[in-house]
What does this fold into?
Amino acid sequence: MTYKQVVKDTARVLQSYLTYQAVKIIIDQLTETNPPQAIWLTNFSDRTKVQDSDNYLRALTLENKELVLRILTVRQDIARQILEFLPEMVDTNIEQSNIEHRRHLLERLTQTASSLEDVNPESNQSDYKE
It folds into this structure.
């Protein structure tokens, strides 16, 4: 797999995630302003997978064009707001996560080495004589 394909796949997943977040925001707004429509969108979203945002939006277009336009607008607004901070935040989070996992791995390796020494203490003694 090439980095170009990884970038395309990541962008597709992020796009679907932003669609999901936009739908959540709109459902929350509709809950306050138009509860029946909030229930309808919730039910539609339960039946149609938001994980594939393009198919979700195509299906929603057949049912409610106004909601599609609203989702597109909210999704684009979210994207514009987060894209400024996202690269640095992802890099920082991955770095911190890697440090934590390496620390945990080192602890496990150290515990395993200690366990082996406890089981066979003679293998660790030095061969010097007094």
